[in-house]
Amino acid sequence: MKKIILLIDDDIDLLNSMASYLISEGFKTHITTNAENAIKNLKIIQPDLIIADIMMPNLDGYEMIKKIRSDKIWDQVPVIFLTAKGMTQDRIFGYNLGCNAYLIKPFYPEELISIINNIFKQIELWKQDINNNKQKTQNKKENPVFDSLTPKEYKVLLLVAKGYTNKEIAKQVNSSLRNIEKYVSRLLNKTKTRNRTELAKLTLLNYLNKQQGE
């Protein structure tokens, strides 16, 4: 799906030029010369990124980004300031308000495209990190009991899952048959399973969840 870019500038010629170039690069665009109208129509436009001038009548770029960053629905939408205000303090002020990039007029269109692509790339990486962390957290929550097992209990558990009898397990871990029976009984209680078959299935499920979460 094509990314939607909202362009806001009181220079209509620049707007049309940028829109044509961005369209040729595979983006969808919406243009407006009025920041107030842009904010009112965010729900309709649903932009993936906003490029805005700073010096505009009625509502300038600084006030516009304040409104966007104060709205929970749109506070994560990236904003690029495209402006003739190139002083260091102007750029610092823009960054402090939450802009993602600052490009000084006149500019090379190729540089703008590079900035846009880099922003979208960073967003995708951020989303992947969040999804991976959620998956790992979910896997841990699904079977927290496995994290509480002692090394000896876990070793017995794996042997049960492989189909070893208590006698065979006792020989493998160099323990008495009576101790292994106690271990298996404790594992059944901890995992709330009714028999060795259910215990083996739960162990296999936990293993698969861990593999998917890595």
From TrEMBL:
Keywords: Chloroplast, DNA-binding, Phosphoprotein, Plastid, Two-component regulatory system. It holds the Pfam family Response_reg. Residues 142-207 form the HTH luxR-type domain. This is TctD transcriptional regulator. InterPro entries: Bact_response_regulator, CheY-like_superfamily, Sig_transdc_resp-reg_C-effctor, Sig_transdc_resp-reg_receiver, Tscrpt_reg_LuxR_C, WH-like_DNA-bd_sf. The modification 4-aspartylphosphate is found at residue 53. PROSITE patterns: HTH_LUXR_2, RESPONSE_REGULATORY. SMART domains: HTH_LUXR, REC. GO terms for molecular function: DNA binding. The keyword DNA-binding applies. One of its GO terms (biological process) is regulation of DNA-templated transcription. Residues 4-120 form the Response regulatory domain.
